[in-house]
Design goal:
four-stranded antiparallel sheet, binds zinc ion, 2 domains, 411 residues, 10 helices
């Protein structure tokens, strides 16, 4: 028997979700400077009677607690709040009022959907086991907000036992608004950067024998590191190594003293991530040495891969099925190599991150971070409903369904 019909309640809340989302959309804030967004969310949470509302967690972040009346564990629910430095071109009546700032990734919708979840949960405290910790995060787009919030204790007091979050939009090609997409393992990639400096000895372009050419060494290193993914990473473990810049030299007849390359590494498995870093260093140093030059590599670490816990994923599938219908809950075809700093939370606590597709309609879909990006407001309630249902049921056992479709076979 169905406990309470969260589906109907979430659907009935959609107009309010749209209102919140439009307000947030009109007033975007960047990076850690999300104080007004957090203040707006705090105001709504206060009106709902949420407990322990704390602003300034991880600078621009906010946490609050919905305390259940039954004993149990604590589920963290996370939404990011930051916008992007983009000049909006949607022409919507509620378009950004802040020049050069835009919610072009749907984080306005994430914040609105989590506020809606808080609203529904606050009505159902009598049946809520344990508590829900609401985590409103700044600075996702610069990959720094999650870490800052964790450092500031967002996962403590009360200690978070499991966590969930979603991303709206159209990362999942081929999906329609109203569906929910999940992955039993990696959903998104890690993103690290490297800077490779090659040092030679500068000289006259006509006398290469008196110089050590760092450009020649760089070309060999470039070619050799492209074999890491093609020859060393297991083919089923997707990975990307892209060199995006190579810089050296000032004139045609001068051998420069040094050359610098910068690139990005994307992986779906922690062991691939470590291995690629090690190999870039070994190849760069070895090849440079063989060519009489020297090389050093500096890595800048971004988020690890977004890896979902299998138990929490089963619970998400069940919860989402009750909201959108089991036929609209599908495994994603493939993970995306885009990164998300939700991964830092998932590194600390078992949890699940899922796709909330919100394509607008034929021909109107612009990619994330595009000046015309927008989301389908008619399905905001499905995100709110799914998170609410998950919060009310994640502590119940679930029997995995032998689901049909792709991505299920284990043999
Ligand atoms: Zn984004
Ligand atoms: Zn985003």
């Amino acid at each position: 028997m169905e406990r309470t019909d969260i589906r109907d309640e979430a659907q009935a809340l959609n107009a309010r979700l749209v209102e919140w989302r439009r307000h947030l959309h009109k007033h975007p804030e960047l990076g850690f400077d999300t104080q007004n967004t957090a203040a707006f969310a705090a105001e709504q949470l206060e009106a709902m009677g949420a407990a322990d509302i704390k602003t300034g967690v991880g600078r621009g972040g906010l946490t609050a607690v919905i305390q259940g009346e039954k004993p149990g564990g604590v589920l963290g629910l996370r939404a990011d709040m930051d916008a992007l430095p983009i000049h909006e071109e949607t022409g919507l009546p509620f378009a950004s009022s802040e020049e050069g700032k835009m919610h072009a990734c749907g984080h306005d919708a994430h914040t609105a959907m989590l506020l809606g979840t808080a609203k529904l949960l606050s009505r159902h405290r009598a049946e809520l086991k344990g508590a829900v910790k609401l985590i409103f995060q700044p600075a996702e787009e610069i990959g720094a907000g999650a870490v800052a919030m964790i450092r500031d204790g967002a996962l403590e007091s009360p200690r978070v036992d499991a966590i969930a979050g979603l991303h709206t939009g159209n990362f999942w090609t081929g999906a329609s608004a109203g569906e929910i997409g999940y992955s039993r393992g990696a959903l998104m990639a890690s993103a690290d950067m490297f800077t490779l400096s090659i040092t030679g000895t500068g000289g006259h372009g006509a006398q290469p024998d008196r110089a050590v050419d760092p450009i020649a060494a760089a070309c060999q290193i470039y070619t050799a590191i492209q074999t890491i993914v093609s020859r060393e990473v297991p083919p089923a473990q997707a990975a990307v190594v892209t060199v995006g810049t190579i810089q050296a030299g000032s004139a045609a007849n001068i051998i420069p003293p040094s050359c610098t390359m910068q690139g990005t590494i994307r992986t779906l498995f922690p062991e691939t991530r470590t291995r690629i870093q090690e190999r870039i260093r070994e190849i760069a140093e070895g090849v440079a040495g063989a060519m009489r030059a020297s090389a050093s590599v500096k890595f800048t670490y971004g988020p690890p891969p977004v890896i979902c816990d299998s138990g929490m994923t089963e619970k998400l599938i069940r919860a989402a099925g009750r909201i959108v219908g089991p036929e609209h809950v599908r495994p994603v075809d493939a993970p995306t190599m885009v990164a998300e700093d939700m991964a830092f939370f998932l590194e600390k606590v078992p949890g699940v991150f899922f796709w909330h597709p919100s394509a607008v309609g034929e021909g109107e879909n612009y990619p994330h971070h595009h000046p015309k990006f927008t989301v389908n407001e008619e399905v905001l309630w499905t995100g709110t409903g799914t998170m609410t249902e998950l919060a009310l049921t994640w502590q119940e056992q679930v029997t995995p369904q032998p689901a049909a479709g792709r991505g299920q076979a284990l043999s």
